[in-house]
Design a protein that fits this description.
Elements lengths: L13 E6 L4 H6 L3 H9 L9 E5 L5 E7 L3 H6 L14 E5 L5 H14 L14 E3 L7 H19 L7 H15 L2 E6 L2 H4 L3 H7 L9 E7 L5 E6 L1 E5 L8 H4 L7 H16 L4 E11 L11 E2 L7 E2 L7 H13 L5 E6 L3 H7 L4 E5 L2 H14 L3 E4 L16 E2 L8 H13 L4 E5 L3 E2 L9 E2 L4 H12 L3
Parallel strand pairs: 1-3, 1-4, 4-5, 8-10, 8-13, 9-10, 12-16, 13-17, 14-15
Antiparallel strand pairs: 2-3, 6-7, 7-10, 11-12, 14-17, 18-19
């Protein structure tokens, strides 16, 4: 799908004024008489997301007012002004030059993300209102971020019929070719030869055309080392612990972690960050067949730890475990995993927040500060060591699904940390889906945490 972009500057671009209720009288007083009378007659109050087009004396369009709402409304929403991209008449618009620079930057990025359409299968109608990049913003950076976000959304939104492990590999290969990255793939029975037994076990029940694989992409030849690991379960039936139909309907998004790290990788490469990047994606389909792995099986892992399978629907942590162990072998400066991993995380923080885990307080603070700056909310969760016994079943080194249902996101994170070893590590348990439309975030696949991580990279890795 085309990546949204800014409009070319035009002398006749229509002016957009972003208005808070407290500033409404001052803004109206600056308008021509006809526009001011029109705004008052329409009862425009600058409510959050409200849009009012403004006429000139001949009835033509001169611009628009966009309401920002009061402090409470702004605290409850993100990218409020960007929603206008889907409400305004066709035309080219430019923000009032007096717009606060931070608000201009947020609105410009939000405008690009609001303009996203997933139209692979049916036309969704192009956004009619185009925005000129505001003066003073880094337009190239915003384009790179929007392009990475669009890639993430496209991958998640594509149904499993067209986004199996081989298709995910093809998407990664296309990205690698675009930026001159190197890529290697270990697939099928070669996973056993390459000591990736957990990835093989989870994916072996799928057809040969949808065989499991480990995608390994590298980019950059100087700077600190960053390894991104993304869960690529292209469809999750639950395996022999079969999900009910109501829980299976959205499982095309179970590769949302892979989609998000690929989107973040695109941002990093497009911006030319001075680092050495590695992306590891275990891509599988958790299918049901006579060869499916079973509850009660004890599986070997790349790290040498044995894992008792108490639920085949807790497969994401299994495939991530081998990938994390592989990544840790090179001792990167930072390793980050992203996965649509647990329902417990959704119960804890809902679909809007990206919970994350790290043992490094400085890293947690840097990520949280960045998240606030770029309107990409995250929430730190604890690697709570007293829960470690919950993932130790006795019959094997580790349990992939402790009984009892308590602290499910935490125990999953603790499980993954065992495979990250001594590597500096952060884990994101994301949802990857926007259940209802919001400004800059249409219903469907969505990136979570990637923009926060991108903004935090200078602090996390000491980049210039």
């Amino acid at each position: 799908m085309p990546t949204p972009d800014f409009a070319a500057p035009r002398a006749d671009a229509l002016t957009l004024r972003l208005v808070a209720p407290n500033d409404l009288d001052a803004v109206l007083s600056d308008l021509p008489d006809a526009a001011r009378a029109w705004a008052r007659a329409q009862g425009f109050s600058a409510a959050a997301g409200a849009v009012l087009t403004l006429p000139d004396a001949q009835g033509g369009l001169t611009g628009a007012l966009i309401g920002l709402g009061d402090d409470m409304a702004r605290a409850r929403g993100r990218f409020i002004a960007a929603g206008a991209a889907s409400k305004l008449p066709e035309g080219t618009y430019a923000l009032d030059p007096a717009t606060d620079p931070d608000l201009a930057r947020e609105t410009a990025l939000g405008w690009l993300m609001e303009s996203y359409r997933f139209d692979r299968y049916a036309s969704q109608g192009a956004a009619r209102a185009a925005l000129v990049a505001p003066d003073g913003v880094d337009a190239d950076r915003l384009r790179a971020i929007a392009a990475g976000e669009a890639l993430t959304r496209d991958l998640i939104n594509t149904p499993a019929s067209d986004m199996g492990p081989a298709d995910l590999e093809a998407a990664a290969a296309e990205l690698a070719a675009q930026f001159g990255a190197r890529m290697a793939v270990t697939a099928g029975e070669h996973l056993l030869e390459g000591n990736l037994p957990l990835i093989h076990a989870v994916g072996r029940a799928a057809t040969a055309a949808r065989a499991p694989r480990l995608i390994d992409m590298r980019w950059g030849d100087a700077g600190p080392t960053l390894t991104l690991v993304g869960k690529g379960v292209c469809f999750d039936t639950g395996g022999l612990n079969l999900k009910p139909g109501s829980s299976m309907g959205l499982m095309k998004k179970d590769m949302g972690g892979a989609a998000t790290v690929l989107g973040l990788a695109q941002m990093i490469m497009a911006l030319g960050l001075k680092l050495r990047l590695r992306v590891l994606i275990p891509a599988v389909e958790n299918a049901v067949s006579a060869d499916a792995f079973r509850p009660g099986d004890i599986l070997a892992s790349r790290k040498g730890l044995s894992v008792e399978v108490n639920n085949t629907d807790a497969e994401g942590r299994l495939v991530l475990a081998d990938a994390l162990a592989m990544g840790a072998e090179e001792s990167p400066d930072l390793m980050i995993s992203m996965a649509t991993l647990t329902g417990a995380a959704r119960v804890a923080v809902g679909p809007d927040l990206a919970p994350f885990y790290t043992d490094a307080d400085d890293d947690a603070a840097a990520i949280s500060r960045a998240a606030a700056r770029v309107a990409d909310p995250v929430w730190r969760m604890p690697f709570h060591a007293p829960y470690e016994p919950m993932i130790e079943p006795g019959i094997a080194d580790l349990d992939n699904a402790p009984s009892g249902g308590m602290a499910g996101s935490i125990t999953a994170a603790l499980f993954l940390r065992r495979f990250a070893g001594e590597t500096r590590y952060a884990h994101f348990d994301i949802y990857g889906w926007n259940p209802k439309p919001a400004p800059a975030r249409p219903k469907g696949g969505v990136g979570m945490g990637a923009r926060a991580l991108l903004d935090a990279m200078p602090n996390l890795l000491g980049l210039e």
